[in-house]
Design goal:
alpha/beta, globular, 17 helices
């Protein structure tokens, strides 16, 4: 075997005879590095990055246990598997080594065949882990790429539909057509988000954000969205909220909305007529234990339990279907009910989110009679006052009589100060969508199709805000923004426009000189919030 292609082994033993024996056994298949003490072993491991370390336990000054502890404490070395070399045969010593994450043991005197097999097994295992990690990185990169490629045309579909729905001169027939286009695009966006969420959960990259949130507003927003979406179905919606529920709690509001929206959306989808009921209550303590994600409990102080019940009179499920309901990529999720829109991943994502929050979910269902889902989530308590009888009654009276204007496509724009805007994007349709969304604000709007063109425009015009695309040829949005800052435009607000929706992107933009972040497809409300933050009368560039 070519020496350059051999896996590297680091053998550590203070007895030179043992080093010689092991080298003779293994040198035909592996590139061998040796060390006679713990300190030298760590230095050589850092210098040569071996694929496997064979480590003697009994050595002077720094024994094998101490050496292994330092290896595992070192970020650059901690993934290297370590096999202990030992003449000790007590369970106590074996337990101590395994507790320090030793991969295996080789006992003295050495058996050449056993040594080769144990080393080969660990090398193969490490190769499999490296291949899996590489595949996971490739998958993450692929999903980021696909997110961008799919979201770019979706930006046009949703953006132009939203713009045309603002046009009061259109006939009702035309409005209905644009509404269908918008809703279909919105459904596709939901499918994309499901796939990205599932990937982030599998990769362990989905993080919870614990913040204070208004409970009544959270309920109102989620209910409004579903009633708008399913307003034409002959379903009576019932909303009951316990007046003793705290008005404010601490938790991941976005993910709680996602859970609530998933349950309500399924209830409406699987019910052709009848009732859908949402009930919200709470308990002033956590009445159950769940240890799926113990670290998340550190973020919760004075925990209480938020209890969510969603009942419907829809088609229901068999016991077998309920048992498979939360399985990832299950046949039931992906193949049953083919007339129902979606990926089938929603319930798996919901189940994972609830586990991450150390909550639980219980499903009861009977074919032809409907389903009842109960979710219990630990939330942080701030000692806030209860929402009270008046708010509870207002929520109870919530009805779907909301007219033609939907929350997603209609907004009430506040008066903003006159100003000049530059939109930077290499895709013409994206420039059109962003410009048309900004025109109702009465702003002066310039367009640039590249980073270099944007920089030249900024040198000539005193802009009040820049909307900067991320992915562009030659000079991308980050490089362009860095150059703008280098030229001295430190106070000019630059808002990132991106079709990349993977976790951590917002923080990446903020760390690279941007002042804000808008994801594609661009939402009217999201854009409006940015303008209110930077362009209201009296605001100045920071």
């Amino acid at each position: 075997m070519d020496e350059l292609n051999k896996n590297k082994l680091l053998i550590v033993d203070d007895e030179k005879l043992n080093l010689k024996v092991l080298t003779n056994i293994l040198s035909s298949e592996y590139s061998i590095i040796t060390a006679t003490n713990g300190r030298s072993a760590i230095e050589k491991a850092q210098a040569y990055s071996p694929d496997l370390i064979l480590l003697d336990i009994l050595m002077p000054e720094m024994d094998g246990y101490q050496t292994l502890a330092e290896i595992k404490a070192c970020k650059e070395l901690q993934k290297i598997p370590v096999i202990f070399i030992t003449g000790l045969d007590s369970e106590e010593h074996e337990e101590k080594g395994l507790a320090l994450e030793a991969a295996d043991y080789i006992t003295k005197p050495f058996s050449a065949s056993i040594v080769k097999l144990r080393v080969r097994n660990q090398i193969q295992l490490k190769s499999a882990v490296v291949a899996a990690e590489s595949a996971n990185r490739s998958k993450s990169a692929f999903l980021a790429k696909m997110s961008h490629e799919i979201r770019t045309p979706l930006n046009a579909i949703l953006g132009i539909s939203a713009i045309q729905l603002q046009n009061e001169t259109h006939s009702q027939e035309v409005k209905d057509s644009y509404t269908k286009i918008f809703n279909s695009g919105d459904l596709l966006l939901g499918i994309i988000n499901d796939i990205l969420d599932m990937s982030k959960i599998e990769a362990g990259k989905l993080e919870l954000l614990y913040v204070k949130y208004n409970v009544a507003q959270m309920i109102n927003d989620t209910v409004f969205l579903n009633l708008t979406k399913y307003e034409n179905k002959p379903i009576e919606f019932i909303l009951n909220v316990d007046e003793n529920v705290p008005s404010s709690l601490i938790g991941d509001e976005i993910r709680i909305k996602q859970i609530l929206n998933n349950l309500l959306s399924n209830a409406f989808k699987y019910t052709s007529s009848g009732e859908v009921e949402l009930s919200i209550s709470y308990a002033d303590a956590v009445l159950f234990e769940n240890h799926h994600n113990p670290s998340s409990l550190k973020n919760i102080q004075n925990p209480v339990t938020l209890i969510i019940n969603v009942r419907d009179t829809g088609q229901g499920m068999t016991e077998e279907q309920v048992s498979k309901l939360f399985d990832e990529y299950s046949r039931f999720n992906l193949e049953s009910n083919k007339d129902i829109e979606g990926t089938g991943l929603g319930m798996s994502i919901l189940h994972n989110l609830i586990n991450m929050m150390n909550g639980d979910i219980h499903a009861q269902s009977e074919p032809g009679k409907g389903s009842l889902f109960t979710v219990r989530l630990p939330q942080g308590s701030m000692g806030a006052a209860a929402i009270g009888k008046e708010t509870a009654e207002k929520l109870h009276e919530f009805r779907s009589n909301i007219g033609e204007k939907t929350k997603k496509t209609h907004i009430v724009r506040e008066h903003i100060r006159p100003g000049k805007v530059l939109i930077v994007d290499d895709v013409d349709i994206n420039l059109y969508v962003a410009k048309e969304m900004l025109l109702p604000y009465g702003l002066e709007i310039d367009l640039a199709s590249s980073g270099a063109e944007a920089i030249e425009s900024i040198k000539k015009v005193n802009y009040d805000i820049i909307f900067m695309d991320h992915i562009m040829p030659l000079m991308d949005g980050i490089e362009t923004t860095k150059e703008i800052r280098r030229l001295g435009y430190d106070k000019l607000p630059i808002i990132a426009l991106t079709a990349n929706a993977v976790s951590g992107v917002k923080e990446m933009f903020l760390d690279n000189g941007f002042n804000g972040f808008v994801s594609k497809p661009i939402g009217l409300h999201e854009l409006d919030e940015i303008l209110k933050e930077w362009m209201l009368p009296g605001t100045v560039k920071n």
